[in-house]
TrEMBL record:
GO process annotations (BP): canonical Wnt signaling pathway
Any one Gene Ontology molecular-function term assigned to this protein's record: Wnt receptor activity
Protein name: Low-density lipoprotein receptor-related protein 1B
UniProt entry keywords in alphabetical sequence: Lipoprotein, Receptor
LDL-receptor class B repeats: 1-43, 44-87
SMART domains in UniProt: LY
Cross-referenced PANTHER family: EGF-LIKE DOMAIN-CONTAINING PROTEIN, VITELLOGENIN RECEPTOR-LIKE PROTEIN-RELATED-RELATED
GO cellular component: plasma membrane
Length: 179
């Protein structure tokens, strides 16, 4: 799945399949300017920062179990969001500090460091990387991803795929080759 935020005409948090199909709104009320987004892949939770409401909130992948982690002036100007173990990590763009926030109750907010021009944050740790199983976009014997001549996108699950073409090409009737 692909998760993303939008604060155009109607602010929302959405998800879709990797090929763009099955687009679903998972949060569309009491939300103004959702920006940074982070996933808890193990427990299937979506965390986001709303910079207008000065809040960090969470829902499950279906948009249920919504609650506010932390809200208020203490977390104004946040950009970037990452989740690891018991904490959320984010960047305060006002003073360029990296903050650590307890993701279960919003307590224990600590400034860890300051970085010039930081706008995003990521946590890379072996335990947070999910195991990769074989999938529909693996290279075929000819080196073509998923048998697609240009682009292979995972679809509704790891066994399904959709072929797409680069700009200026159209997908052939076989659903794999581009002309």
């Amino acid at each position: 799945k692909l998760f993303f935020t939008d604060y155009g005409n109607a602010a929302k948090v959405e998800r879709c399949d990797m090929d763009g199909m099955n687009r679903t709104w998972i949060v569309d009320s009491k939300i103004e300017q959702p920006t940074a987004l982070a996933l808890d892949l193990v427990n299937k939770y979506v965390y986001w920062v709303d910079i207008y409401l000065d809040s960090v909130e969470v829902v499950d992948y279906q948009g249920r179990k919504r609650h506010t982690i932390i809200k208020g002036r203490q977390i104004r100007h946040l950009c970037g969001l990452a989740v690891f173990e018991n904490y959320l990590y984010t960047v305060n763009s006002d003073n360029l500090s990296i903050l650590r926030i307890n993701r279960y109750n919003g307590s224990d907010v600590q400034s860890l460091a300051r970085l010039d021009n930081a706008k995003e944050i990521r946590v890379y740790q072996k335990r947070s990387q999910t195991g990769v199983r074989s999938h529909a976009c693996e290279a075929d014997p000819y080196g073509m991803p998923g048998g697609c001549s240009h682009i292979c996108l995972l679809s509704s699950n790891y066994k399904a795929r959709t072929c797409r073409c680069r700009t200026g090409f159209i997908l052939g009737s076989d659903g794999r080759s581009c002309k």
